[in-house]
Design a protein that fits this description.
By secondary structure, this protein is α/β, with parallel strands linked by helices. The protein is built from 14 helices and 13 strands. It binds pyridoxal-5'-phosphate. Pyridoxal-5'-phosphate (PLP) binds at residues 36, 97-99, 123, 168, 172, 200, 202, 231, 233, 239, 242, 244. Residues 36, 97-99, 123, 168, 172, 200, 202, 231, 233, 239, 242, 244 line the site of pyridoxal-5'-phosphate.
Amino acid sequence: MDRPALTSRLHGFGTTIFAEMSALAARTGAINLGQGFPDTDGPEEIREAVVAALRAGVNQYPPGPGIPELRRAIAGHQRRFHGIELDPDGEVLVTTGATEAIAAALLALCEPGDEVVTFEPYYDSYAACIALAGATRRVVTLRPPGLTIDPEQLAAAFSDRTRLVLLNSPHNPTGKVFDRAELELIAAHCRERDVLAVTDEVYEHLVFDGRTHVPLSTLPGMAERTLSISSAGKTFSFTGWKIGWATGPRELVAATQTVKQYLTYVGGAPFQPAIAQALGLPDGYFADFRAGMEAKRDRLCAGLRAAGLTVFEPAGTYFVTADIRPLGFDDGHAFCLQLPERAGVVAVPTQVFYDDKDAGRPLVRFAFCKRDEVIDEAASRLANLTA
Ligand SMILES: Cc1ncc(COP(=O)(O)O)c(C=O)c1O
């Protein structure tokens, strides 16, 4: 066959960098600070709730929008933490992780030729899903150390073809948490141009140093034009369960559900009641989870600094970005390919998340959602590293 197997829409999208680097970690036995998954499971009572559901026969297709109990729990969570009121019947959709919600939303809301404004470095599924939808991405660059939005670049990213803004806050890979003034700037463009917003808030409970996560949908004029996406994976340390959700105006949720039903139809039957229970855990669970991860952030940042890297301390998420140039390297991809052999550690080169490769070339992302002894061992291995 002359014609390549893969659709031209995904030309250039090979294996994700996470799969590549995790395979490298497995092959070399290196410590994997590449992929963002915790090395300890979430609450025991929630694991047991899945076992109970399996044994109780919750093993067949759940309802299309998700079980009512989980949709009510998601609405309750949005009210408790963000003051957002939702009707669980029509304004809440359960998905197979945030990943499916993002894909379904972009496929549902975009026409070929539409433009999507997003921020680089971007989570890799955004570029692929925008391409699958036949849309074009228009990217605004967040540059360290401040990672602030350049208002002129933001304004220039909008055009008559802009359909939506795809915003991730707290932001992977930088750990940036967009503040209210930046969100207001984005919202002003959305209102002025009658543009939709899709937000990825999977790290909503990982915001440090007394900051707060502000959902874009809570800004004036934004509730009616924003589809908010989140998931249980990060918040409850069960990333393999893939229970996510999309919430917002009925019309946006219904459009997303129309696509979602042809992607997976439904998923995760025995996990759904367990996540409903998890969303109802007391405030202390969420506070302890955040405090624990904040301490891990401090631990890894100190280790990376001691190893000689320039560290951009994250305000949220699981991740810290560092500049490798003080160690005598300048290309993050080459550095990360050598790192398992040289130091027994795996990290992720940030340049793969940029259109402007130069902007990301010397930057590398490390995950700190790991046991303290693992973080310490990785830091001490990195301390022996020189070009
Ligand atoms: C920004 C961002 N969005 C979405 C996801 C995926 O979420 P889920 O596992 O719920 O599909 C991740 C996982 O790393 C992420 O970092």
